[in-house]
Amino acid sequence: MMNILFHIPELSRVTPCLNNVRNYLKAVDTDADKFRIVFNGNAVNSLVDKTESADQWKDLAEKHNNIQLDVCSNSLRGMGLLPESLIRPISIVPSAILTLVTLQNEGWIYLRP
Length: 113
What we know:
- This protein has 113 residues and is α/β, with parallel strands linked by helices.
- The protein is 39% helix and 21% strand.
- The protein is built from 4 helices and 5 strands.
- The protein has a 5-stranded parallel beta sheet with strand order 4-3-2-1-5, sandwiched between helices.
- Helix 3 (73-79) links the parallel strand 3 and strand 4.
């Protein structure tokens, strides 16, 4: 089992990351691995409810219970977004950088598509 950490700090990287996660899941055909996808910067906009990208992330997270979507509280404030405007299930983390460093220190594999 692997713990895989995807980091999406830019809106332009959302679709490539979504494709990476889907392709990986197809290739391994198992839900044994764990995924954390950390959104910060303007990428947090891709989680606003009722948007195409948010719907895609929501579908993927609902289909695979080994996927956790993390969004940076600092970036939400910076983008003027309220947590209530985002899809569920998401996890709001106080700081993306702290989450990224902590998970890497715990042995998570870091990927930035």
